[in-house]
């Protein structure tokens, strides 16, 4: 039976994670609203997500480095504060440039939690219980992302996007107070004595490993395709023949619920059939789900979105596991690099696909992002065989 200390840590991080990921993805259903509110194009509107991710990537590197030296809990709490404050200021500006800069700053602040949370869990919780705590933390990521999208879409359609952001800020303050009083101070944190140069060498070590580079690339491709679906879905569903309201579109994000069960389900299947087979199956299911959204039927589009989520979270969780298994040294750095590649995929999926959407519409976009993971998988299989043959010749 888990003790009170375990549950204080687990619930605190789950609540913090829920809000952080709700904040990160809150703008996704609102992209068509920003086009009208700021008189901008679709490509510019997508910057409200991609620039947040750019800030997050920078924050992961800097704040991860600092958390190893200063401590964990301070960055978890500062992450919440830095995520809340921009929500109060964004509704006050008429400048899209300032709005995007506030999202960039918010993205940097968001990184404080993922940069410190898993390390804090591994240090403070008994190894036998750490797996349960980590699973709950990761599930709250998916749950927060889903609720953030659904709630902001619903409130923005019923009232306004400004009220949606103020509501998020107030909710965040409640979470901050709970975390401040519940989250225990670190008991086993030991400040790293490694220099920045040594940390950098740890990162660069993995960039020389061809097998790991292929896995990092897969992280980018998976998230690029997955984010691409959800970024342009609101624009597609607002048009003919669906003409859905923003509120109705926001309900489509409930498909993310499969992400809450997808990761542990994938781990269970991998234990039976093997990681590689289940990961390939997840990638295939992802591509099939994306392709299903080409249907003219709203019902089959919803089914396709559910299949897409199940396939993505299966493939993503097992790809992250593969990184830890393949890295022989500096496993923490390898995981960080995968996280960075994952969020590069988010940024590309929200902005780099805009020309395809603009020139070829939903059909062209979906065909591209449905085929891309399968094509990359084929390339990976081919290159891995070449690497294995090369290693075998060296060993001979």
Written account of the structure:
The structure is a single chain. The chain has 396 residues and is mainly alpha-helical. It is 84% helix and 0% strand. It contains 17 helices and no strands. α5 packs antiparallel against α9 (161-182). The model has no long low-confidence stretch (mean pLDDT 87). It is found in: Cell membrane. InterPro entries: MFS (IPR011701), MFS_dom (IPR020846), MFS_trans_sf (IPR036259). This is Inner membrane transport protein YnfM. The chain crosses the membrane at residues 47-67, 74-90, 96-120, 132-151, 163-183, 212-233, 253-273, 285-313, 360-383.
Structural class, by secondary structure, is mainly alpha
Q: What is the CATH C level class of the largest domain, in words? A: Mainly Alpha
**CATH-scheme architecture of the largest domain:** Up-down Bundle
Tally of alpha and pi helices: 17
Subcellular location: Cell membrane
Domain Major facilitator superfamily (MFS) profile: 9-388
Family: Belongs to the major facilitator superfamily.
Keywords: Cell membrane, Membrane, Transmembrane, Transmembrane helix, Transport
Draw up the topology in text.
Blueprint: H1 4-25, H2 31-38, H3 42-45, H4 47-70, H5 73-89, H6 96-110, H7 112-124, H8 127-158, H9 161-182, H10 196-206, H11 210-238, H12 246-251, H13 257-273, H14 275-292, H15 298-326, H16 331-352, H17 354-395
């Amino acid at each position: 039976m888990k003790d009170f200390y375990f549950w204080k840590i687990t619930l605190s991080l789950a609540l913090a994670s829920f809000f952080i990921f709700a904040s990160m993805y809150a703008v996704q259903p609102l992209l068509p609203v920003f086009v009208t509110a700021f008189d901008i194009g679709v490509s510019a509107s997508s910057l409200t997500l991609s620039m947040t991710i750019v800030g997050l990537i920078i924050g992961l590197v800097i704040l991860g480095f600092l958390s190893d030296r200063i401590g964990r809990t301070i960055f978890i709490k500062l992450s919440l504060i830095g995520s809340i404050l921009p929500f109060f200021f964004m509704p006050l500006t008429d400048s899209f440039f300032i709005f995007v800069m506030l999202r960039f700053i918010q993205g940097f602040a968001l990184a404080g939690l993922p940069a410190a949370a898993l390390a804090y869990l591994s240090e403070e919780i008994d190894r036998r219980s750490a797996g349960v705590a980590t699973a709950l933390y990761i599930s709250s990521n998916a749950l927060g992302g889903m609720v953030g999208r659904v709630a902001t879409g619903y409130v923005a359609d019923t009232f306004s996007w400004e009220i949606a952001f103020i509501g998020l800020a107030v909710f965040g303050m409640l979470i901050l107070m709970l975390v401040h009083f519940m989250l225990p101070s670190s008991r086993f944190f030991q400040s790293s004595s490694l220099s920045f140069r040594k940390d950098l060498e740890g990162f660069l070590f993995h960039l020389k490993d061809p097998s790991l580079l292929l896995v990092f690339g897969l992280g980018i491709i998976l998230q690029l395709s997955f984010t691409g679906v959800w970024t342009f879905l609101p624009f597609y569903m607002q048009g003919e023949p669906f003409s859905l309201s923003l509120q109705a579109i926001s309900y489509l994000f409930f498909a993310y619920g499969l992400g809450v069960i997808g990761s542990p389900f994938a781990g269970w299947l991998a234990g039976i059939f093997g990681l590689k087979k289940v990961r390939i199956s997840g990638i295939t299911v992802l591509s099939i789900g994306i392709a299903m959204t080409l249907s003219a039927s709203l019902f089959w589009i919803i089914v396709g979105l559910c299949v897409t989520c199940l396939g993505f979270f299966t493939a993503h969780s097992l790809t992250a596991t593969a990184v830890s298994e393949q890295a022989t040294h500096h496993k923490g750095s390898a995981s960080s690099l995968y996280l960075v590649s994952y969020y590069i995929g988010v940024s590309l999926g929200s902005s780099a696909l805009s020309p395809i959407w603009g020139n070829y519409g939903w059909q062209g976009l979906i065909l591209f992002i449905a085929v891309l993971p399968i094509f990359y998988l084929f390339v990976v299989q081919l290159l891995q065989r070449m690497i294995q043959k090369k290693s075998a010749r060296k060993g001979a």
